[in-house]
Specification:
Structural class: alpha+beta
Helix content: 25-40%
Number of strands: 19
Oligomer: single chain
């Protein structure tokens, strides 16, 4: 007998006496039965019912960029509701990935499995958003979404469905077990590459191939780990079980602890850099690698949330590590976390979702981002959130004020003071020190009124990070030093010292730069010159060797000019010293302490340069200050120090008298209130637009 194709009619969830009604789902099918048969039941959250929650992706759960053959030809699932299940004889449309999850549950009865310390889910009830919310009822969707913090925190457990197995799954799980074995030995080590002595001593026998690491990278970059809504689902969960096909993983031991190990040892960054190079071998530019270890960021957020209430600013920053189909979900997907962390039952009025805004308008996400940026500024009573603004060229949202971060885009540049604001009393930089307190605006417009000091204008700039690294143009940086038009730097140090400290934002090994950093900087210069020489001889890269040969000759001339001008400064070695360094590196015993220290110093100063300079460029101001700022800076852009801002900012004047924010900047010599001594305390009032 042919089944009815009539669609299921949802009953109302309205309550008259303060009930918090939701629907829960129960599988009735036997293994592999299609369509899957189920039932729905209405329950009241106020009565503490027993149920689980499913956390999954509507669209394709897999990461295909490392798949064999041509990733572009791989069949990808969509989030289309083109599969069906049967509920009380009627049909409900669901996505393909959700069907895979339900088929897996029907085979194993996993939903009824016991959870330690929790009441058994004997009925097998599970809450699934696509099924338990009437997707055609916008009013119900808004009410239920506002209740999701209660739904997930009230569940016995959250089941994280990563999707079906693929070609990477089994090799990845073998690497996972290897990592857990290494982790159990608690090695105190930082990995700088896959060839170093530390790596070989830990992973050398048997060696792990590049393909195996790529398999693991494909596993930890599955879509579930990148969904912005999982921030809330994982944060609020009492217990999480992770399912990948038929494999059941422990959130704590298989996901969380391993992610912490990868982050702490820098191995996660190495894996992601290698995977990115494998997935995009023809990419011509090198950019800041936004580490995809979202498992680590989830746990960091949960750990921070147990110590103190999470601020809206911190949550907005965390959300940029994740992806969302709707840009506004980078805000809406974390409001439940804010409520839970701040221990409030309801959002304050200024954080309520504005139901009057037209969600179909092109600028809806921009208006949402602006609204919550205002809320964050009023909460923090400063302008620290401006440090989350990337270069204008990276933005996706239309009509977004220049001062509002685009939360839907991952970090292209590493904020100078870090992703989250430093703890109170340990700020590295307070450029506005000595200025009057920040006046918190009361309006809620697209313009942000601020007060500050116009310090200087950008006069000339050097090449970008990709230009230095991929086009071997170290000369562009050195030219600014060679042509520096003064004998001393305005802050009292030498131009050479200001130069090298600026290029690493005065930071080394995540601490203020010291004598070790100064000594290591020569290895950065020698390494880049050595790479240029190899490329000019056709030994690496794919640029024209004849063009690079000319660049190499001009670079040598610049280096000799610097050596003569600055009396053979050891920080910028001359060509004889550079050749000596490169020869020493080649001839040292790989196992010697000296070779290992030299390689470690080179790797660490290179990482300091990468974090500071990626997606930025070096500039000199008219007053001969050196700084680094967004790649999109132009001659004539102004360096401002604003009341309430931790670091200086580059602003661009526009015709109507307002100013656009280009981005934050490190300017050597004005990072801790020195601007007041140089310029004075008189402030100008301007609008950021």
């Amino acid at each position: 007998m042919e089944r009815s194709r009539e669609h299921y009619a949802y009953s109302s969830l309205d309550g008259n006496n303060g009930e918090r009604f939701i629907r829960v789902f129960k599988i009735l099918s036997i293994a592999n039965e299609r369509p899957i048969r189920c039932s729905l039941k209405v329950i009241d959250l106020n009565k503490a019912p027993v149920y689980d929650c499913l956390s999954y992706t509507w669209g394709d759960p897999l990461y295909h960029e490392l798949s064999a053959g041509y990733p572009s030809l791989v069949r990808r699932m969509t989030g289309s509701l083109d599969h069906e299940i049967e509920c009380n004889g009627k049909m409900i449309s669901i996505s393909e990935n959700l069907e895979h999850a339900l088929l897996q549950f029907s085979k194993t009865g996993f939903i009824s499995n016991p959870v330690e310390g929790c009441q058994n889910n004997d009925e097998g009830f599970i809450w699934i958003d696509a099924i338990c919310i009437n997707q055609k009822d916008e009013e119900e969707k808004n009410i239920q979404i506002a209740m999701m913090d209660r739904i997930y925190s009230g569940a016995r457990r959250v089941i994280a469905w990563l999707g079906r197995c693929d070609e990477h799954t089994h090799p990845a799980l073998e690497i996972l077990q290897r990592l857990k074995s290494v982790l159990s030995k608690k090695p105190q080590v930082t990995f700088t590459d896959f060839e170093g002595a530390e790596y070989q001593s830990v992973f050398g026998d048997p060696p792990i191939s590049s393909q195996q690491w790529n398999d693991y990278a494909a596993f930890i970059q599955r879509a579930w780990f990148n969904r912005v809504w999982i921030m809330q689902e994982a944060f609020l969960a009492k217990h999480i079980d992770v399912l990948c096909g038929s494999h059941v993983l422990s959130w704590q031991h298989d996901i969380s602890e391993v992610a912490k190990f990868l982050q702490k040892t820098n191995l996660g960054n190495l894996i992601m850099v290698q995977a990115d190079g494998t997935a995009h071998p023809d990419r011509k530019t090198t950019a800041y690698v936004n580490n995809s270890l979202n498992q680590y960021h989830l746990e960091a957020m949960k750990a921070n949330g147990t110590k103190k209430a999470l601020s809206l600013e911190a949550l907005l920053a965390y959300s940029r590590y994740f992806l969302a189909e709707r840009a506004q979900d980078h805000v809406y997907g974390l409001l439940g976390i804010w409520k839970s962390s701040n221990k409030v039952a309801e959002l304050p009025e200024d954080m309520m979702i504005d139901q009057n805004m037209d969600q179909s308008s092109d600028d809806y996400a921009a208006r949402v981002f602006t609204q919550y940026s205002w809320v964050s500024i009023r909460n923090t009573k400063d302008l620290h959130i401006l440090s989350l603004v990337d270069s204008p060229s990276t933005r996706k949202q239309k009509n977004l004020p220049s001062w509002v971060p685009d939360y839907s885009v991952g970090f292209h540049v590493h904020p100078l003071a870090g992703i989250l604001r430093p703890s109170s009393g340990v700020h590295r930089w307070v450029a506005s020190n000595g200025l009057p307190p920040f006046d918190v605006p009361t309006s809620n417009l697209g313009k942000l009124p601020v007060k500050g000091i116009l310090f200087d204008e950008i006069d000339e700039s050097a090449n970008t990070y990709s230009g230095v690294m991929d086009q071997y143009d170290i000369k562009s940086l050195l030219d600014l030093l060679l042509l520096y038009p003064a004998e001393t730097y305005p802050a009292g140090c030498t131009p050479v010292e200001a130069f090298w400290r600026t290029l690493v934002k005065d930071s080394f090994r995540q601490r203020p730069a010291n004598g070790e950093a100064r000594d290591a900087f020569q290895y950065l210069i020698a390494g880049r010159v050595g790479h240029l020489e190899d490329a000019s001889e056709g030994l690496e890269g794919d640029l024209d060797p004849s063009d690079l040969s000319s660049l190499f000759d001009r670079t040598k001339s610049t280096i000799e000019g610097i050596s003569n001008k600055y009396k053979n400064s050891a920080v910028i070695p001359d060509m004889e010293a550079i050749n000596g360094i490169l020869e020493e590196v080649c001839n040292l015993d790989p196992a010697s302490d000296k070779k290992q220290k030299l390689e470690r110093d080179f790797d660490d100063i290179s990482e300091s340069f990468r974090v500071a300079y990626s997606c930025r460029r070096l500039f000199r101001t008219k007053k001969n200050y050196l700084g680094i700022a967004a790649e999109s800076i132009e001659k004539g852009d102004a360096v401002w120090v604003l009341a309430g801002a931790a670091v200086p900012l580059v602003l661009r004047s526009v015709e109507d008298g307002g100013w656009k924010l280009v981005g934050e900047t490190y300017v050597h010599g004005i990072m801790n209130g020195e601007v007041v001594k140089v310029v004075g305390k008189e402030l100008r009032e301007i609008d950021l637009i």
